Amino acid sequence: MKTHLENKLIAIVRVRGTYGVRHDIKETMKRMNLNRVNSMVLLYGNKANIGMINKCSDFVTYGEIDNETLELVAKRKEIKVEKTDIDGISAGKKSPKEVIPMPIRMHPPRKGYRGIKQSYKAGGDLGYRGKEINSLIKRMA
């Protein structure tokens, strides 16, 4: 079964903390290296990663990241990244971990979150947001 995230570069941002979270969800976020609120990781959309993202979707927001935002993230980490590296990450030829150290600690978003207890479709910030993740990352950079 193919999903809309298959073979795409996905940015995952942790929005909520760990208080009252089930142990298996905590472990999943730990395996994805999302240890703190406002931290971000970049993963490719394979079957295992999509399963982990779906499991903790009530505590994170995620979507497809574009090249412009990826360059901004690299500048924020003060890493000298060439355009060929960015294109290699987007095309799936290079791992994001090879170019940018993970997790990426981000600032809280300017003008805040809309709501950390509701899904993005319901007017909050949790779950899948598609290309709108790029505007959130720009507010956090």
Structural features, described:
The protein has 141 residues and is α+β, with helices and mostly antiparallel strands. It has one domain: 2-Layer Sandwich (Ribosomal Protein L30, Chain: A). The chain has helices spanning 23-31, 47-55, 67-76, 83-91, 96-99, 133-140, and strands at 9-14, 39-44, 60-64, 104-105, 127-128. Strands 4-2-1-3-5 form a 5-stranded mixed β-sheet, covered by helices on one side. The longest helix is centred in the middle third of the chain and has 10 residues, at 67-76. The N and C termini lie far apart (35 Å). The mean pLDDT is 88.
In short:
With 141 residues, this protein is of the alpha+beta class. 35% of the residues lie in helices and 15% in strands.
Helical fraction equals 25-40%
What kind of sheet is the major sheet? Answer: 5 strands, mixed
Q: How does CATH name the architecture?
A: 2-Layer Sandwich
In angstroms, what is the radius of gyration? Answer: 14 Å
Compute the number of helices.
6
Main sheet: strand order: 4-2-1-3-5
Query: How do the helices and strands follow one another from N- to C-terminus?
Result: EHEHEHHHEEH
